[in-house]
Amino acid sequence: MKAYRKNTISALAVAACLAATGAGADVITFDDLALAPDTRFTASSSTTFTSGGATFFYDAPFGPCCWSGFTYSNRTDVTTPGFLNDGSAITGDGVGAGQDNYAVSNADGARLEFAGELSLAGAYFTNATYSYLAMRDGDDGNTPPFVSGPFGPGDFLTLTVTGYDAANAATGSLDVALAAGTSILDAWTWVDLASLGLVKSLGFTYASSDMGPFGVNTPSYFAMDDLTTIPVPAAAWLLASALLTLAGTGVRGRRKG
After folding, report:
1. CA spacing 20 to 30 A to 30: which of 4, 55, 126, 175?
2. Beta bridge partners of 125
């Protein structure tokens, strides 16, 4: 039998379920979260927030000065370098119209969880202003700059998105190029996440050409909007289960690690 990757079989299971049930998509826009104009969410300690049925983890063990994980924002500043502007997307707004919130994430280990296992259609991604200006201009607001820049040929900042099932086992991963050489993402860009299969949670990590003794020097941020999920109805689990069993027992292949 021809070998396929397990996450490819998972994607086929998702597709088959959707075809069989006509399941609709739910879009997490973050616009259901109340926010004053041109601000972002902050808290004095670690907490969570929920949007569209998903839970996002905001980590601030030392107060709002040192947050990581996820926040939500509608900030519009696309010109100010440095960490004091770490809650703005380089687009200056979200994907939708009206109250236009979006999510901003910071640092390795950011995570979000869904109420149950589901499949993903995809989401829009772009850079935060802080990381974009650091890569484009070599300006991170410090004198002298902590980062190496501007980015040139061979430089990169890559976001890796990993899916996890209800048992916290990785279902697959994919890369989002936030910067590749001098091509630095500055618009909302749709990323297809269907290949992650059926997931209960997502985790996010970074890799960069600009490394130091403590890891990535490039500000490790991204912005995300319109995360689109596709619930799998209970009646479709028989078909999904059969295909996923085939992936785990009858088909052998390498999973990206």
Report:
1. 175
2. 189, 224
> How many CB atoms neighbour CB 251 within 10 A?
17
> Which residue do the tokens 């370098």 mark?
81
The neighbouring-strand residues paired with 231 are 118
How many whole angstroms separate alpha carbon 37 and alpha carbon 85? Answer: 15
Whether residues 136 and 237 fall in one domain: no
pTM score, two decimals?
0.81
Residues 11 and 33 grouped into a single domain: no
Joined tokens for residue 79: 């010109």
Sign, CA torsion 105/109/114/118: positive
> What average pLDDT score do residues 8-25 get?
51
Partners of residue 175 on adjacent β-strands: 160
pLDDT at 160 over 80: yes
Residue range 150-177: mean pLDDT, rounded: 97
Looking at residues 63-88, what average pLDDT do you find?
93
Same domain, 42 and 155: yes
**Domain limits for position 93:** 24-231
